[in-house]
Amino acid sequence: MSPAPIPKVLAFDVFGTVVDWHGSISRAVTALRPGVDGDAFALAWRAGYVPAMRRTMAAIADGSGSFRVLDELHLEILRSILPDFPQLADLSEAEIQDLNKAWHRLDPWADSVEGLTRLKKKFVITPLSNGGIGLLTYMAKRAGLPWDLILGAEVFQAYKPDHRTYQGVARVLDVKPEEVMMVATHHSDLDAAQDAGVQTAYIERPDEMGPRKELKDDTPKERHPLHFKDLNALADYLGC
Length: 240
Known about the structure:
Layout: E1 9-12, E2 19-20, H1 21-32, H2 38-47, H3 49-62, H4 70-81, H5 93-100, E3 107-108, H6 112-120, E4 124-127, H7 133-143, H8 153-156, H9 163-173, E5 180-184, H10 187-195, E6 199-203, E7 227-228, H11 231-237
Parallel strand pairs: 1-4, 1-5, 5-6, 6-7
Antiparallel strand pairs: 2-3
Organism: Trichosporon asahii var. asahii (strain CBS 8904)
GO molecular function: hydrolase activity, acting on acid halide bonds, in C-halide compounds; phosphatase activity
Family: Belongs to the HAD-like hydrolase superfamily. S-2-haloalkanoic acid dehalogenase family.
């Protein structure tokens, strides 16, 4: 088997790989109502993410609905879980809307900005996220994430792990799929990317799920031999 070509484009999962969604959401809700279990709230909100995307794609497939950006899905999930947290029962509509925008204000991991800045010197870097363009733009502006461009899910009218997303990066940037490397902290994301013909690199994020470390599997997998402790380690490997 011939060696993989040197990638031209690095596409990054964002939630968990580049930013700390759990810690950021937990801090946002406890700042709003100090008595709330921030860990449980963050996990409950995130738990609705995949089912909501599946419902959207099923509605598109049967003609009963259209594509929806993640801000809309997040708000729908938020409203559905509020009854499970009595301390949040008195939230005003303005507070609910602002809490939903907490996903725009997620904090980067300690190595993210430095690692991305190093990688940007040699490669085109872009998020490949199920987040929308607006969400990802406001997040990048606040966190200092130095993307070359922002590819939100609405560009492809699909969410990962649909192959159209990974192959769409190659199409948009006029490169071959094998010249794209997907960088993520989720094995399922990398499995789908590899099936779509894209190179892969795994980034360890042992704290992604907060204190529930048993929920996070950072074990190296044979299928994805490029496995790094953080983005700076990836930059070292790629000679940046």
